[in-house]
């Protein structure tokens, strides 16, 4: 039987940002800690009160990130390009995450898996659950691309006395979970991560779909693809592709109105404190082939990879282009108000991005650096007093090559 959170559905999923964050600190992604019994632990676990990423990383790996890709992707023992054999076409990509959770239960390695279903009557509103059977984990397939209080389910884990669990979630959730791990009384914890950026509340997701898609009500799957387009799959199987540059962000009130302040202050796109993270950002195209990329971060992550290995097909990386000139130009754009260019210019930009833009791993580096820069500027503009506590040191190291341009544009050093 699936046990769901005791908080009423409309509270966990359907509320606007304003209602959802009432009474919370200024920066909150509703990770689930403050909705339940663990609320008194907020100060010691919240990534937006005190970002302990580097301290927790040291505990997990015995070291911090080295210069190079680790500054963007996090520490890992291995990185693989993979897909399920056969691909699960009902999943977000190929079904790696749900298969892993289901296998852990099938083989008796865990007693429960914390994952995210869709709230009844909705396609996208996230409902965290404690899955006790492989079928219940499989039923969590597909993104519900909204903030979700998954850690609230720890109350149910404690109440039911489970000692071996797996957790599937995003970086802000994993930070809090790692910070509290030693106090949870668990014998075994597998931390399986999704990369995450620009998450939003459910009402704002619906607003986005209305503006971005020609038929918002029939969208059954959406992803921001590596070809600089959002792909919407509709109920009848057709795919609608919208260039990033054509999205009317100002029609949504701009990024700062669309995304919660917490997601604009988030610096862990690749979910660096997991045992294993599975995304798509650096995986090769075309998307129809459903290749994913996986970071095996810890010994427990290696165990997960071996568990899954017989069901996987391994692929190879690709990379191309040079992100650095574009990233330096992006810094200038961050200062200026966002105005959507005229249609012919957008068409040209979209063509340039697809044909000349960074590809494969270089595309992933480019996207992550853009988010680090944008979010650093956001924190400095609106939450400057918090910078010392919420921006981890690796951010400044990762962006060091842009320091001169940053200083020219913002008339202050990149470093704190
Ligand atoms: C909000 C969000 C943003 C993401 N952004 C990126 C990104 O920018 N770049 C990137 O490379 N990858 C991103 N991902 C991950 C990616 O889209 C796929 O989910 C991942 O590659 C796994 O695919 P799969 O087929 O193995 O997953 P599936 O087997 O389909 O399983 C999906 C899993 O996601 C979990 N899930 C669904 N919604 C949520 C939610 N709201 N919060 C927490 N967990 C949830 C479910 O529990 C389920 O187990 C994001 C995922 C989410 C949920
Ligand atoms: S992000 Fe989590 S820990 Fe932080 S304030 Fe929000 S619910 Fe609490
Ligand atoms: S963008 Fe960051 S803060 Fe927002 S839900 Fe994702 S991991 Fe959490």
UniProtKB/TrEMBL annotation:
Give the InterPro entries listed for this entry.
Co_F420_Hydgase/DH_bsu_N, FRHB/FDHB/HCAR-like, FrhB_FdhB_C
Domain of life here?
Bacteria
Q: Which Pfam families match?
A: FrhB_FdhB_C (PF04432), FrhB_FdhB_N (PF04422)
A single Gene Ontology MF term assigned here is: oxidoreductase activity, acting on CH or CH2 groups, with an iron-sulfur protein as acceptor
All copies of the Coenzyme F420 hydrogenase/dehydrogenase beta subunit C-terminal domain together span: 163-308
Tell me the ranges covered by the Coenzyme F420 hydrogenase/dehydrogenase beta subunit N-terminal domain, including all copies: 88-154
Protein's recorded name: Coenzyme F420 hydrogenase
* Annotated organism of origin: Candidatus Viridilinea mediisalina
């Amino acid at each position: 039987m699936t046990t769901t959170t005791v908080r009423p559905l409309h509270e966990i999923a359907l509320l606007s940002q304003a209602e959802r964050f009432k009474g919370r600190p200024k920066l909150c992604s509703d990770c689930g800690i403050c909705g339940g019994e663990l609320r008194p632990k907020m100060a010691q676990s919240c990534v937006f009160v005190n970002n302990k990423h580097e301290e927790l990383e040291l505990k997990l790996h015995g070291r911090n990130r080295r210069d190079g890709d680790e500054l963007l992707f996090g520490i890992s023992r291995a990185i693989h390009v993979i897909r399920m054999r056969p691909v699960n076409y009902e999943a977000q990509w190929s079904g790696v995450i749900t298969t892993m959770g289901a296998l852990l239960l099938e083989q008796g390695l865990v007693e429960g898996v914390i994952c995210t279903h869709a709230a009844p009557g909705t396609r996208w509103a996230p409902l965290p659950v404690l899955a006790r059977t492989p079928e219940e984990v499989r039923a969590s397939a597909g993104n519900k691309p909204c903030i979700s209080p998954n850690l609230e389910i720890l109350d149910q884990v404690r109440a039911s006395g489970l000692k071996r669990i797996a957790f599937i979630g995003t970086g802000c959730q994993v930070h809090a979970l790692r910070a509290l791990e030693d106090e949870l009384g668990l014998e075994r914890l597998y931390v399986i991560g999704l990369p995450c950026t620009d998450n939003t509340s459910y009402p704002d997701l619906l607003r986005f779909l209305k503006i971005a898609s020609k038929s918002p009500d029939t969208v059954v799957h959406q992803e921001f693809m590596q070809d600089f387009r959002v792909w919407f799959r509709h109920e009848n199987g057709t795919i609608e592709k919208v260039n990033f540059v054509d999205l009317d962000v100002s029609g949504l009130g701009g990024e700062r109105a669309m995304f919660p302040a917490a997601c604009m202050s988030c610096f862990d796109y690749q979910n660096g404190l997991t045992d294993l993270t599975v995304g798509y950002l650096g995986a090769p195209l075309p998307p129809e082939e459903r290749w994913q990329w996986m970071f095996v971060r810890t010994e427990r992550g290696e165990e997960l990879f071996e568990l899954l290995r017989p069901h996987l097909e391994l692929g190879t990386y690709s990379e191309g282009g040079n992100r650095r000139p574009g990233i330096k130009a992006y810094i200038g754009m961050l200062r200026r108000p966002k105005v959507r260019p005229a249609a012919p210019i957008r068409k040209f930009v979209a063509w340039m991005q697809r044909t000349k833009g960074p590809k494969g791993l270089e595309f992933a580096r480019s996207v992550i650096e853009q988010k680090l820069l944008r979010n650093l500027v956001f924190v400095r503009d609106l939450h400057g007093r918090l910078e010392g506590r919420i921006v981890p040191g690796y951010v400044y190291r990762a962006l060091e090559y842009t320091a001169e341009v940053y200083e020219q544009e913002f008339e202050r050093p990149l470093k704190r």
